[in-house]
Amino acid sequence: MDVAVIKYNAGNVQSVLYAMERLGANAILTDDWETIKKSDKVIFPGQGEASTAMKYLKERKLDQLIIALDQPFFGICLGLQLLCEHSEEYDTTCLGVFPIRVKKFPPLEKVPHIGWNNLQHLKSPLLEGLNDSAYVYYVHSYYAEVDPRYTIATTHYINDFSALLHRDNYYAMQAHPEKSSEVGETILTNFLNL
Amino acid sequence: MLTKRIIPCLDVKDGRTVKGVNFIQLRDAGDPVELGRIYAEEGADELVYLDITATVEKRKTLVELVTRVAKTVNIPFTVGGGISNVDDVKALLNAGADKISINSAAVKNPRAVDEMAREFGSQCIVVAIDTKNIDGIDFVHTHGGRKPTVLQTREWAREVTDRGAGEILLTSMDHDGVKNGFANEITADLSALLAIPIIASGGAGKMEHFKEVFTAGKADAALAASIFHFKEIPIPELKKYLEREGLSIRR
């Protein structure tokens, strides 16, 4: 199983590679079009700021490649937000795979949302074996709104938001599966088995 | 629901844990990676590795340790101890650390907090504050709590938050090692004052102390070392107890 992890200016990509290694997948960090195209699965990691990340992707035309892929694709954290239509973070136009807007949490509780929170309303083969007592690790200040057409799990913090999204071959998760203990490993394993 | 976090802290010197540990299931009780893996399996929500190595080779050994931890452990971990500049932070984050914590270096050069937060994002910058009460006033201390500063704890916590800290790790030197409970009052003050999570440290002796620091102390996370290392309080039991007491805890 060859997994391409898209190389761009995102932080802590190493953890995603190590998680893949632990699950026995052959993951490579790459920004090469051909390598990404012919891999079995693609992971789009992320940590950082939306506008800088989009600028970087556009400069390397990775934005065009990402939306044209047809193998199972998994966006993580900022990767989820970049797959949406628009982010309030520096008013950034994103990739538009999901026609969903990304908003900043209102300061009604501590922001960023840091720590373990549970998944709710789970519905997807990606989440097989899990229920609403599944906790995942979050670190984020922006969230994707809930859209019943694409949201396959929600989490509640200040308000309900999209914990995971799915459309065609595109999957995305706001929390960090690579840091979410057995629950994260279940989700990554389910993704590898798609 | 967002849960309260339980965080074991491991002191490391030259790549080995220094405080004694008596985990019988460990092949190598001095191996910080193996110990971290066991804690993760037991349900720890995060780990903190505090490096107290004082040699020129320090950064190299620490980067090696972080790489090994990141390969093995499937929960978030923070690394602290002697980190002073953006290059240190970059090396540790690239090796796989989720967050770094700075303490004395922030006091010496507060702008380092701004620089680190701007370069890597607030979410991975933890500012550790050692506090001690002198004649009724809480002052920041450095060098493992030995050196007093003129900074008052509440003001300093607000300043580092404004400069971009993502979390505060508050250790009360008055409570540390005494096992008489956390410093709930100042922890609650900081939690109310600041819009970022507060990790309380110092004073855990009984399971009740964790309940108190999460309720009266309003802490977002609680950190302890020896009581976990010596199995005085096993993490699974602690989490069951806190859940029974009505706190939001990750199962």
TrEMBL record, chain A:
Identify the pathway.
Amino-acid biosynthesis; L-histidine biosynthesis; L-histidine from 5-phospho-alpha-D-ribose 1-diphosphate: step 5/9
Catalytic reaction list: L-glutamine + H2O = L-glutamate + NH4(+); 5-[(5-phospho-1-deoxy-D-ribulos-1-ylimino)methylamino]-1-(5-phospho-beta-D-ribosyl)imidazole-4-carboxamide + L-glutamine = D-erythro-1-(imidazol-4-yl)glycerol 3-phosphate + 5-amino-1-(5-phospho-beta-D-ribosyl)imidazole-4-carboxamide + L-glutamate + H(+)
Task: Give the UniProt subcellular location, in the record's own words.
Answer: Cytoplasm
EC numbers listed for it are 4.3.2.10, 3.5.1.2
Pfam families the record matches = GATase
State a single Gene Ontology molecular function.
lyase activity
- Indicate the residues that form the catalytic site: C77, H176, E178
Domain Glutamine amidotransferase, by residue range, is: 12-192
Keywords noted in UniProt: Amino-acid biosynthesis, Cytoplasm, Glutamine amidotransferase, Histidine biosynthesis, Hydrolase, Lyase
Q: Which InterPro entries match?
A: Class_I_gatase-like (IPR029062), GATASE (IPR017926), Imidazole-glycPsynth_HisH (IPR010139)
Q: State whether it acts alone or in a complex, and with which partners, per the record.
A: Heterodimer of HisH and HisF.
State the protein's purpose. Answer: IGPS catalyzes the conversion of PRFAR and glutamine to IGP, AICAR and glutamate. The HisH subunit catalyzes the hydrolysis of glutamine to glutamate and ammonia as part of the synthesis of IGP and AICAR. The resulting ammonia molecule is channeled to the active site of HisF.
Q: Mind telling me which NCBIfam families this protein's record contains?
A: IMP_synth_hisH
Q: What is this protein called?
A: Imidazole glycerol phosphate synthase subunit HisH
Ranked from the top, the taxonomy reads: Bacteria, Pseudomonadati, Bacteroidota, Cytophagia, Cytophagales
TrEMBL record, chain B:
The UniProt record lists the keyword Lyase: yes
Record-annotated active site: D11, D130
EC top class, as a word: lyase
EC number(s) stated in the UniProt entry for this protein: 4.3.2.10
Q: Does the keyword section mention Ion transport? A: no
Query: What are the subcellular locations of this protein?
Result: Cytoplasm
Signal peptide (UniProt feature, chain positions): none
Q: Which reaction does it catalyse?
A: 5-[(5-phospho-1-deoxy-D-ribulos-1-ylimino)methylamino]-1-(5-phospho-beta-D-ribosyl)imidazole-4-carboxamide + L-glutamine = D-erythro-1-(imidazol-4-yl)glycerol 3-phosphate + 5-amino-1-(5-phospho-beta-D-ribosyl)imidazole-4-carboxamide + L-glutamate + H(+)
Keyword terms, alphabetized? Amino-acid biosynthesis, Cytoplasm, Histidine biosynthesis, Lyase
Q: In which pathway does it act?
A: Amino-acid biosynthesis; L-histidine biosynthesis; L-histidine from 5-phospho-alpha-D-ribose 1-diphosphate: step 5/9
In the record, what terms sit under GO molecular function? lyase activity
> What's the chief localization of this chain?
cytoplasm
| InterPro entries attached to this UniProt entry | Aldolase_TIM, His_biosynth, HisF, IGPS_HisA/HisF, RibuloseP-bd_barrel
Q: Say what the protein does.
A: IGPS catalyzes the conversion of PRFAR and glutamine to IGP, AICAR and glutamate. The HisF subunit catalyzes the cyclization activity that produces IGP and AICAR from PRFAR using the ammonia provided by the HisH subunit.
Q: How does it assemble?
A: Heterodimer of HisH and HisF.
PANTHER family on file: IMIDAZOLE GLYCEROL PHOSPHATE SYNTHASE HISHF (PTHR21235:SF2), IMIDAZOLE GLYCEROL PHOSPHATE SYNTHASE SUBUNIT HISF/H IGP SYNTHASE SUBUNIT HISF/H (PTHR21235)
Which family, according to the similarity comment?
A: Belongs to the HisA/HisF family.
Tell me what this protein is called: Imidazole glycerol phosphate synthase subunit HisF
Say which species the protein is native to.
Answer: Cyclobacterium jeungdonense
Source taxonomy lineage? Answer: Bacteria, Pseudomonadati, Bacteroidota, Cytophagia, Cytophagales
Gene of this entry: hisF
